[in-house]
Write a structure and sequence with these properties.
three-stranded antiparallel sheet; alpha/beta
């Protein structure tokens, strides 16, 4: 193993431990003495289930099973209070069988926050850069793959897509989320029956107010939890 490998590992561990230290200081400052206190519940916590021998990731009222996906030896984001709020919103959205929509100016870490949450829970996040040349058929193929593999995807600059296409995409996303809510193992998608792995997650990022950007249709907003990254 190279020196670079050890440096990356050390940097990731230091980042996580510094955040853990700041959390402990906050809990001490606020005199947190119960596991039911919100400042404790709002943290991303890991527990081993003795009955199933699975690692359970908990935050607020959300329980996720750790995915155990090997993502390589890469770094972690510095975790700020805003990062914690984004995590809470995204994990709650997953628990409610919805997607996530971080939005804000360019370069504020919207996509990286989604990717870092994936690293925290051991889930692979596929990032796709959207453009106005996409049609509903190509997006439908991507959604079909996500539903059948169970991985997460982050569609970057989602509002670059034409609003007419977004209207159809909203129906495609709703089909997948409805199938997850029904706890179905297979469902009809784009006139074909496909299997469903319910761990799939659909996240989109947006730069609102920029020239050439579309507003999300109302039926697509229903599918998403809106959070602001600033």
């Amino acid at each position: 193993m190279t020196v670079e490998w050890y440096c990356l590992t050390a940097a990731a561990l230091i980042t996580i431990e510094v955040h853990a230290l700041s959390v402990i200081e906050t809990l001490h400052h606020k005199h947190t003495s119960s596991i039911n206190h919100f400042d404790w519940q709002s943290q991303l916590r890991f527990y081993m289930d003795k009955d199933t021998d699975l690692c359970i990731v908990r935050q607020t009222n959300t329980d996720l099973t750790y995915f155990y996906e090997y993502l390589g030896n890469n770094g972690r984001l510095v975790i700020t209070p805003l990062t914690d709020r984004c995590y809470m919103t995204l994990t709650t959205a997953l628990a409610l069988r919805r997607g996530g929509n971080p939005q804000g100016p360019a370069g504020t870490g919207k996509t990286e926050t989604v990717k870092d949450l994936g690293k925290a829970v051991g889930q692979f996040v596929l990032v796709f850069n959207c453009s106005d040349g996409l049609d509903y058929k190509s997006l439908g193929r991507m959604f079909s793959g996500l539903a059948q593999t169970g991985c997460w995807s982050c569609f970057d600059e989602f509002n670059r897509i034409e609003v007419e296409v977004l209207s159809v995409v909203a129906q495609q996303i709703q089909q997948i989320l409805s199938a997850i809510q029904r706890k179905a193992t297979t469902f009809i998608f784009e006139q074909a029956e496909i299997k469903l792995v319910p761990t799939c997650g659909i996240f989109v990022t947006m730069n609102p107010g920029y020239a050439g950007r579309s507003e999300l249709p109302d039926n697509l907003k229903v599918c998403q939890y809106i959070i602001i990254s600033c």
